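User: Predict the structure for this protein chain, please.
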Amino acid sequence: MELGNNNVIIDSEEEFFRKSYALELQKKKQQINDYQRGFNQLEEERRQVNQQAIRTPGRRGEVIKKEEIEKEFTRRYKEQSIN
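Assistant: Here is the predicted structure, written as structure tokens:
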């Protein structure tokens, strides 16, 4: 019974982390096509997360960060292709 409660706590903490990190990523500027030329903050974040993942493989936080960065890049490319 307690194991189930721990999973719920872990899932809610992971969901909170995902949402807060996604909001942080949305604030970063990134050049996509000709929009926001010269800015590479999102790409720099990706580079730092990848380097950290190499140093400490298997950490759930880095895996989540990688997933959220890819989602943000995808969202921005779709947004730019619509405009």
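The chain has three helices and two strands.
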